[in-house]
């Protein structure tokens, strides 16, 4: 894939359900939310580039890291931190990608229920989960991102169109909202908001997979930076327009706050198409990893179809079990994406720099790499960069812990409980 196509994959995957929840985050946190979203976008870009650089060094040192690898993030963690690192990354990756996929299915089902009601058909979201999963399952049979590159352009195009229409609707509805008031913030709202922002920029689990399919992997830095810039330019207008026009009247999903009409239903239809494409992109690393574990061939076979269909059925069951997406976003963001996006990139990069320096200085061979000392390590990574990395590491640990705790408290509160679809379909 070219840097442009890779950037489209990054932006198309990032601008998913996070786009719909960011305006409410701004209202819960206040103007500080705008600062936080820019800050975390910069940090996520930096750690994304760092992760790709770590993999590039690993490919230079280890033979089994060269060529196409189905589970690059897990393999990188194993090379730098052994089996503990590999299993920890795998656990976080599965939690993050499964949680995100479930959230996308739930949002899509809610959107389709809204559209069907508009046309006079009362089809509950629980039924739509089944229909949506059935429709996307054949599309998950594509192998790797390079096999469905057109989805990336479709995801970005539909998101950009939605942003324009949402901003227009907010501007047109502004005269009907004369007295805009904002929610009083508190520590729990701030921590939940940080978790959802982390969720919004949580694509690090996919970055090494995209890097595998690039024609020139050395162009990854341009692709990552471009992808995050595109995403930020789509996030900020949506966030500002909803925050300024509706204030505390915003719902968790901005779509439910917009005035109903032809333009509204067009937005719902287009964002549903986008979320469907983003879902297929998002879940791909899990599909590849499971196939690797089951020794399923990389070429297209019936085994791939069966395997990926079973995984889709499991996602459907989880979606029906947890039919609310806002709490899922905060928990997944705090528990998984803080690890994958801010903690492990720093740890893997630091250790990989040590391994790479030892390899280049011929202190040892690739089969038994001896770590260089801390004094020598300071010469490998500049002091300013090491300090920045430790700051990001501390921020990731703190934000991940506090956000996960707040999300669990929110999920366990009585007013957030909802029955699974297989118990209460309506």
From TrEMBL:
Keywords: Membrane, Transmembrane, Transmembrane helix, Transport. Residues 2-357 form the Amino acid transporter transmembrane domain. The keyword Coiled coil does not apply. The keyword Membrane applies. The chain crosses the membrane at residues 29-49, 87-107, 119-142, 148-172, 222-246, 262-284, 305-322, 328-349, 388-412. Pfam families: Aa_trans. It is found in: Membrane. One of its GO terms (cellular component) is membrane. This is Vacuolar amino acid transporter 1.
């Amino acid at each position: 894939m070219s840097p442009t196509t890779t950037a489209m994959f990054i932006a198309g995957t990032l601008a998913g359900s996070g786009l719909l929840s960011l305006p409410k985050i701004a209202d819960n946190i206040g103007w500080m939310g705008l600062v936080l979203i820019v800050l975390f976008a910069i940090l996520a870009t930096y750690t994304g580039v760092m992760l790709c650089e770590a993999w590039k060094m690993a490919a230079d040192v280890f033979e089994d890291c060269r060529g196409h690898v189905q589970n690059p993030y897990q393999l990188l963690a194993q090379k730098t931190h052994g089996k503990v690192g590999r299993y920890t990354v795998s656990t976080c990756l599965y939690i993050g990608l499964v949680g995100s996929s479930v959230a996308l299915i739930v949002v899509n089902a809610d959107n389709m229920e809204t559209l069907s009601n508009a046309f006079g058909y009362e089809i509950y979201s629980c039924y739509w989960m089944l229909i949506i999963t059935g429709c996307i399952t054949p599309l998950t049979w594509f192998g790797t991102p390079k096999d469905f590159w057109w989805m990336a352009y479709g995801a970005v195009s539909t998101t950009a169109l939605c942003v324009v229409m949402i901003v227009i609707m907010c501007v047109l509805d502004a005269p009907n909202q004369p007295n805009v008031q904002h929610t009083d913030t508190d520590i729990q709202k701030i921590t939940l908001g940080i978790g959802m922002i982390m969720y919004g920029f949580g694509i690090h689990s996919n970055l090494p997979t995209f890097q595998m399919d690039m024609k020139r992997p050395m162009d990854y830095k341009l692709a990552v930076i471009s992808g995050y810039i595109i995403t930020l330019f789509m996030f900020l207008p949506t966030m500002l327009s909803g925050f300024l026009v509706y204030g505390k009247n915003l719902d968790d999903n901005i779509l439910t706050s917009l005035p109903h009409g032809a333009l509204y239903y067009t937005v719902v239809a287009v964002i549903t198409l986008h979320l469907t494409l983003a879902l297929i992109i998002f879940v791909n690393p899990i599909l590849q990893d499971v196939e690797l574990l089951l020794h399923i061939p990389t070429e297209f076979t019936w085994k791939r179809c069966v395997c990926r269909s079973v995984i889709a059925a499991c996602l459907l069951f989880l979606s029906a079990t947890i039919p609310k997406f806002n709490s899922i976003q905060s928990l997944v963001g705090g528990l998984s994406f803080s690890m994958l996006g801010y903690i492990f990139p720093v740890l893997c990069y630091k250790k990989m720099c040590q391994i790479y320096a030892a390899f280049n200085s011929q202190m040892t061979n690739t089969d038994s790499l001896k770590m260089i000392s801390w004094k020598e390590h300071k010469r490998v990574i500049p002091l300013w960069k090491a300090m920045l990395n430790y700051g990001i590491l501390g921020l990731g640990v703190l934000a991940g812990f506090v956000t996960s705790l707040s999300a669990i408290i929110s999920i366990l509160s009585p007013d957030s409980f909802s029955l699974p679809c297989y118990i209460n379909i309506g």
